[in-house]
Amino acid sequence: MLGISACDQRVADSTPPAPAPKAVEQPVAKSAPPTPPPAQAAEVAVTFRRPPFSWDTVPIYQMFGDGKRLLTDAELKIVAASSDFICIEKSHGISKTGCAWLGAAREIERFKKIDPKMFCLFYFNSAYAFPFSKDTQVFGAEVVEEPFRSFLLSDPKTGEPKRRGAVRMYDVLNPEFRTWWAETVGKGVRETGADGVFVDQMHGNVFSRRKQKNEVDAAQAEMMRMAKKAIGPEKILLLNGVDEDRPDLFEIGDAFMFEHPNAARFLTKEAIVKDWDDMKKIAAAGKIAVWRIGVNKEAKGAKLVSEADLEKFSRERLSYYLAAFLIGAQPYSYFQYGWGWTLQDGALVDYPEFSKPLGAPKAEATRPDPAAWIFTREFEKASVRVDLAAGQGEIHWH
After folding, report:
1. For the residues 302-309, what does the mean pLDDT come to?
2. Which domains does the chain have, with CATH numbers?
3. Are 365 and 375 in contact, with CB atoms under 8 Å apart?
4. What pLDDT, on a 0 to 100 scale, did the predictor assign at position 303?
5. Shortest CA distance to 127 belongs to which of 308, 1, 260, 306?
6. pTM for this model (two decimals)
7. What are the C-alpha distances in Å from 155 to residues 143, 166, 168, 210?
8. CA distances from 222 to 121, 227, 239 (A)
9. Which of 45, 81, 166, 241 could make a disulfide contact with 11, Cβ separation 3.0–4.6 Å?
10. Residue 241's pLDDT band (boundaries 50, 70, 90)?
């Protein structure tokens, strides 16, 4: 799901996507009465530190990695200018430093020299044993020795560690694994100097043992509680791919990503409305939401689309996806946009819309015709309209 590892392209390409949020149609009131701008709503007391959120421009979250190298000074400034809430991907800088944690640590130090208030997360996977750090490289060995071998699922036919593609799979039902994983996350936050951790693939590999779903869900929740304790109350625990029917994980996590890796094919209008509703719930709890849109374009008859084509397509579709985000955005809602997880997949693209003055929302969105899928919302310096049925959006900047 996340990132294309320059160290092991096959491993990253083989990673399955996190389960998509369930598409459930949610009724929206015909016309919401005027309410105080969400940005001025009463603050909810939280223990973790949050990024310095602002409605001045579109709130942007950035996530990227390049396994071959570190950022150039110019690239560092581009990213820092675009967002103050970022995550360093799982294999970033490993060819340069020998360990992805060292790559993350160096970049975080550089970012904080530019802006000490920047919030920087590091990446850790809860389902797949990526061997990119000194603490996980054991899982990349030809033979994984104990006790680490017991941390992995076994293929019932061969007895060998189970894989999806080239990457081995963790066994969340092993309590010793859960302890090791949580302690490793805490260690990673400390050693990278990060403000928290982005936890990917929250499914616990349940598809490999569906009859044990309740046990897997409970073990996954326990491991997240342990991880939150390990990183400390002020650090951010950002969870990716959490279903709406998991109140236990909602209570544990500080931040949540709505990941839509191929939005053009799989993101329905009903799912977008459901995301808006979830953004409100997250904001009401004082937590953070990241709405991630992947604008992958699959050209007919082509196996590979050029970066130039993808950038062009992303610009063409930005008005729709950005309008859809703004209709549902709440305090501490962030927008992430691109066509992948590497540095070259959109993190360095200059989208002028992200720099235009926005201002706080004047009220929640309205739906003039309950039979239509058209929604509008007014901001201090922009008027937003989206037609979810037509897949079209308009933003008029004042």
Report:
1. 74
2. 9-28+52-356 (3.20.20.70)
3. yes
4. 57
5. 1
6. 0.88
7. 15, 14, 10, 15
8. 21, 9, 14
9. 166
10. confident
Query: Residue 147, preceding bond cis, omega within 30 degrees?
Result: yes
Q: DSSP H helical segments within the chain, as ranges?
A: 9-13, 73-82, 94-97, 100-114, 175-192, 213-231, 247-252, 263-266, 269-284, 307-328
Written as six digits, the tokens of 28 are 């929206």
Structure tokens at 153: 């699922």
Cα separation, 232 vs 14, in Å, equals 33
Q: Give the CA diameter of the chain.
A: 64
DSSP state of 361: B
Count of residues making up the chain? 398
**What is the radius of gyration, based on Cα positions, of the chain?**
21
Q: Chain-centre distance of CA 235, in angstroms?
A: 16
* pLDDT confidence bin for 16, thresholds 50/70/90: very low
Average confidence (pLDDT) over 329-357 = 96
Rounded Cα distance between 231 and 210, Å, is 30
Q: Sorting pLDDT into bands at 50, 70 and 90, what band is 259?
A: very high
